[in-house]
């Protein structure tokens, strides 16, 4: 069984596409030796660590509304 489960992750981020996007971006940063957000991880791989950070509410994402107005 995978930890954290997809069902628990989808309660944190609303869509699978957004979840994958956020996790992939964070995993790339982890591979570039960015500091860890948790003290202990179950996973040894960057993607797993990113998903654990999302599950622990240490990593989130937000949608910015860019209103375009023509002048």
Automatic annotation (TrEMBL):
What top-level class of enzyme does the UniProt entry assign?
Answer: transferase
Q: From what superkingdom does this record's organism come?
A: Bacteria
Q: What is its EC number?
A: 2.7.7.6
Any Pfam family:
RNA_pol_Rpb6
Q: What processes does the entry annotate via GO biological process terms?
A: DNA-templated transcription
Question: From the UniProt record, which GO molecular function terms apply?
Answer: DNA binding; DNA-directed RNA polymerase activity
Could you give one GO CC term from the UniProt record?
Answer: DNA-directed RNA polymerase complex
UniProt keyword annotations, A-Z: DNA-directed RNA polymerase, Nucleotidyltransferase, Transcription, Transferase
Subunit composition and interactions: The RNAP catalytic core consists of 2 alpha, 1 beta, 1 beta' and 1 omega subunit. When a sigma factor is associated with the core the holoenzyme is formed, which can initiate transcription.
NCBIfam families, sorted: rpoZ (TIGR00690)
Protein name from the UniProt record: DNA-directed RNA polymerase subunit omega
Q: What organism does the record attribute this protein to?
A: Robertmurraya kyonggiensis
Task: Give the classification, highest ranks.
Answer: Bacteria, Bacillati, Bacillota, Bacilli, Bacillales
